[in-house]
Design a protein that fits this description.
Number of strands: 16
Distance between the termini: 21 Å
Strand order of the largest sheet: 1-5-6
Number of domains: 5
CATH topology of the largest domain: Lysozyme
Largest sheet: 3 strands, antiparallel
Oligomer: single chain
Shape: globular
Amino acid sequence: MLMIKTSLARFLTGCIVGLLTLGAGSLQAQSGALPRPAELEPAIRFWTRVYTEVDTDSGFLHDARNLAVVYRKVDYNRREIEQYRGRIIEDLQVLATGKRTGLTLTQQQTLDAWPDGVTNAQLAEAANSVRFQLGQSDRFVEGLIRSGAYREHITRVATERGLPVELGALPHVESSFHPGAYSHANAAGMWQFIRATGQRFMRIDNVVDERMDPYVATHAAMSLLEYNYNLLGQWPLALTAYNHGAGGLSRAVREVGSDRIEDIIANYNGRAFGFASRNFYPQFLAVLDVERRAQALFGVLHLDAAPEYDEFELEAYVEADTLAASLGVTLDQLRFDNPALRPVVWQGGKRIPRGYTVKIQRNSINAPLATLMARIDAEQLFAYQTPDVNYVVQRGDSLSAIAGRFDTSVSQLVSLNQLDNQHRIQIGQTLLLPHDTSMATQTLASAPSTPSEPEVLPAVATAGGTYSVRAGDTLSRIAARLAVSETDILRLNGISDPHRIYAGQALRIPTGDEPQLVSVAYNSAVDQSRVDEPVIMSDIEDASSGDVVGPPEYDAQIHGDRLALQIMSDEAADDLAVEPDLSVSAGNELAIRALSADPSDYSVGSNGTVEIQASETLGHFADWLNVPTQSLRNLNQLSFSQPLIIGERLQLDFSVVDQAEFELRRRQFHVAQQENFFRNYRIQDLARHELAANENIASIARQRYSVPLWLLRQYNPGLDFSRVRVGQEIVFPVVSRDDDA
């Protein structure tokens, strides 16, 4: 029925000295694999100050481009920040006129922040680049303490893959080692994956979001970093690509004409390559420095211990409360140990899926795991998942109106559908609805408009001590009829909300010989009283497009903001559904973001040509351009039977569709293609294959590895499919199919 295994996640509580002594070997690794160009030292020193000198109640006003220029420390107060910032801008504007004598005190202080010889042009430019950076020293210490629960696991995964162990410090930059972190860019978890990138390596849907499991996400993060490194050839670029995307860094290398990180930071002006991306690698190096000197900076800290888990892979679908009751743990305990399961599972709308590996802390159970699992009755193990109930958004709908119509909440709809914006739904959009099992096979159209009074049948408990809930039942009625305590039923079944039972649910009825729940203590990085709420960051918005106060854009990192709880308000979600009306430029930005891990160049060259990518045909290009295929053949002097060659360039005809619209259509095609593939497949490993005589790459990819050519090319971007040779090494991603997808 169930495959049982023991987790290797073990860590002993200890002081910071044991965890952070990297040793000479790691220092050599940093000097080689993680170089420190002299040009980056000012930025590294700046971030070191951010992590050691100021906490989240204060910060620095500084120049956004030259991080050696720090104007002053200021408390985290919007009005005070704006006042000081406005004064600095005024002073810079005066200094930019060439004035150097008769300066006021603040003008002199502003000038002193710059090195000798600063030009008037530099000062004029600096007036548009005054930025506030929130301090991080307290958050760093909190993250360092939390890291104890995960660092041994991270180090082991990195070592097994032959990657630098220093990569284990990356969550300091991403989330302060907070496994429940969310960003405004919709990145989630300790490793801050956006959905499109995360789906390559993890299951992310309305039932399971493995980004929220720090152990699973660690494997995914190392896979992504390894992919970035194999693609870009060096760790400074691979780490920056973790923030900016492998596709973005590939464009940067092409446009700058250099693969040196210092050249790219200084000279690349890509629209999305903002403050966070430019500073990602220097910030990471600063974190390594601070972590190495943590004892001297912060004193001796006792780190969180890693829980010891028993794990088991489900071979059937099972209700969460059934599983909790069988293990003799609370539903909250089971939920804490399995953060990848989404709220719909804990609310009873979906079962824990078959194939999911459930974790439970070893000290929370009082019997062998096999014995506890055997308590699950065969009738409570399902061969299928609870089916979805859908609703198609109509004109005039709002999220709050839909929630009221179907007796649910806005927050449930937002969570279940993973909506980016509770204020924006679209006509024709399909929403999943929470539901009781009794309604699972019933369509909305066939539901009776006025439900009849349910027949109340006698309550009967089976000989095995279970009761099947019927329509019209309440927990108090069941308890009264069976002469047992309602509290005992709640306890035995792991139910936290007595109002959430449903027809068909099997309740265990107290008989007097049930195992007692074990009270356990375990380390939690998330306040259990607030476990339903995502942890996000609230940032300071820019006053204008030219005034940089907070981060120019919000990336998947938490360096510049303070933790806050986001609460979905039903009253705030009454915006009417709208027609999809994204502009071409906005659509292209979304598509580029969705393709961030794809290094392929989908843009049009200055000469009106494009590089042909895998899975593209002449018919595709004709459709995207709204022109006949024959016109493209004539333009490119192609015969009727002549195929397109991946990697070659094709001349395009923009007489009907302009360049931006074409690029949007092309990118949307590839986004849909990749989303469809990763909805069913996950990248698990890499295989290196040496081509033998008479072997065909396409056949090997399709028959042996089940990998489409577009994905194969992403892992082999320099591969010329028309000029392969015997003995050539090809990297094949190893994928597994998710049968529950």
